[in-house]
Each structure stands twice: as structure tokens, then as C-alpha cells.
Specification:
One of its GO terms (cellular component) is proteasome core complex, alpha-subunit complex. It comes from Drosophila guanche (Fruit fly). Belongs to the peptidase T1A family. The protein is of the alpha+beta class and about 240 residues long. Helices cover about 35% and strands about 25% of the residues. The protein has one domain: 4-Layer Sandwich (Glutamine Phosphoribosylpyrophosphate, subunit 1, domain 1). It has six helices and ten strands. It has a five-stranded antiparallel beta sheet with strand order 8-1-2-9-10. A five-stranded antiparallel beta sheet has the order 3-4-5-6-7. Helix 4 packs antiparallel against helix 5. The longest helix has 22 residues. The radius of gyration is 18 Å and the shape is globular.
Length: about 240
């Protein structure tokens, strides 16, 4: 059977058991600018590539949801912003109802339901964006990966987006060192991982954010990012990258 007979909506499954609309949404994530997340027991770091706009301004790839939580994304920006607004609403509603900060695990359960609902109706399409969610609460630091298929995974380190396999290889190779890392070292590991898909010579347009113990979610400015880029120019072993 031809594919186009089964790819008009998300409620029709092909004879091979595939839902093509979900696969198309996953491809949109793969074509987005790479973003990396990694954590230890005290901190979670996000690092994301971005393309400057025609005016030379920065297009936000990392967005704070609250003082304890933020996201980065790869894929279709309007879809990512829709999920971002949903998270803002969930966070605000919980704060008003319970006079406290929403547990990160609970927020991720609600977000997973939101994403999964898009795959169950013929009049909707899956979100074409993948998210990395960094948070910190009473249970410690958190890193979640959320994909258009409604897969929500709790991670120690991960990467999504274009050529992200290179970044994942770096993270897998160095993951055993993250738990003992200081905040600065963890940030440098994130930058080294995100640098991999670009190559050493190419200019690095990057956003970096951190959240953790006694550290509210913060997206670094240009000067602070440049400082960490220089720190990350040497490998953990002291050798040049």
C-alpha cells in the first residue's frame, strides 16, 4: 500500500503498524538546531545552538518556565512555544491552588498527557517539537526529554536535534564524570558536547542555562557565555579539543 493512503491523520495506522504523522513530527525534531541537557545531583545544564535572526538578534531556544524550571527545544518553534505556554499555565495554576511550587515529576506527567492527546484525534497533528526540560525541586535535579510521540524520558544526559548523535556520543563517553563535577565543569561538558556537531573551526552560536541547588533557573548572557566558551576550549584532561 502507498504511504499517502495512511498519512492524512494520526488515527490511521498503516499495515506495517506505523503512524506516519508522528514520524513526520519526529523528523521535524531531527532537523532542528541541536540542544543538549545534562545533570548531576545538584545541577542541571541546558546548552542549545541557535541561528541569529536577520537583524542579528538572538532567537530564544531556552525559555524559563519558573524559578525552578526551564526548557530548550528542537523543531518547530511555534509548537514548542505552545507547550511552553501550557507549562506556564500548569505552573501558575498549581501555585495558586496549593501555594507552592509544582513538583517537576507532576508537571511532566501533565505535559506528557498534553502531547499524547495530539496523537489521538483525527483533527489534530502531533507537535513538531522536542523538549529538554531542566528542573530542581525537593527531590533534587531533573532532566526530561519530551518527544512528539508523547515519550517522556527521565535522563542523566541527552541531546536532540540535527546531528545530535555526535553530542550523545560525547555525553555517553563522559557521563561517569558528571556526578562529581562542579557547576562550572558541568557547564563546560555541555558546551563541549554541543560543539561536536559543528566542528572546532565553526563559530559557536550558543545559549546556556542552569538550575540547581540554591541556583534559580538562569539563562546566561553573552559575556557569561563567552567566559564558559573559553573555559571549555580545553578538555577535561587539559588537552585542547
Amino acid at each position: 500500500m502507498r504511504r499517502h493512503r495512511y498519512d492524512n491523520d494520526t488515527t490511521v495506522i498503516s499495515p506495517q503498524g506505523r503512524i506516519f504523522q508522528v514520524e513526520y513530527a519526529m523528523e521535524a525534531v531531527k532537523k532542528g538546531e541541536a540542544t543538549v541537557g545534562l545533570k548531576n545531583k545538584d545541577f542541571t545544564v541546558l546548552a542549545s545552538l541557535y541561528e541569529p535572526s536577520a537583524e542579528g538578534t538572538m532567537q530564544r531556544k531556552i525559555m524559563p518556565v519558573s524559578s525552578q524550571l526551564g526548557i530548550s527545544f528542537a523543531g518547530v518553534a511555534p509548537d514548542a512555544k505552545t507547550l511552553f505556554r501550557h507549562m506556564l499555565t500548569e505552573t501558575f495554576t498549581y501555585r495558586v491552588s496549593y501555594i507552592g511550587k509544582i513538583p517537576v515529576d507532576r508537571l511532566m506527567i501533565n505535559l506528557g498527557k498534553k502531547v499524547q492527546a495530539q496523537t489521538n484525534r483525527y483533527d489534530r497533528r502531533p507537535f513538531g517539537a522536542g523538549l529538554l526540560v531542566a528542573g530542581y525541586d525537593e527531590q533534587g535535579s531533573h532532566l526530561f526529554q519530551v518527544m512528539p510521540s508523547a515519550t517522556v524520558i527521565k535522563c542523566l544526559a541527552t541531546a536532540i536535534g540535527s546531528r545530535s548523535q555526535i553530542a550523545r556520543d560525547y555525553l555517553e563517553h563522559h557521563m561517569q564524570h558528571f556526578e562529581g563535577c562542579s557547576k562550572d565543569d558541568l557547564i563546560c561538558h555541555g558546551i563541549r558536547a554541543i560543539r561536536g556537531p559543528l566542528g572546532i573551526e565553526q563559530k559557536l552560536n550558543i545559549q546556556v542555562a542552569i538550575v540547581g541547588k540554591d541556583v534559580e533557573f538562569k539563562v546566561f548572557g553573552e559575556k557569561e557565555t563567552e567566559k564558559y566558551l573559553q573555559m571549555a576550549s580545553q578538555s577535561a584532561d587539559g588537552a585542547d579539543l
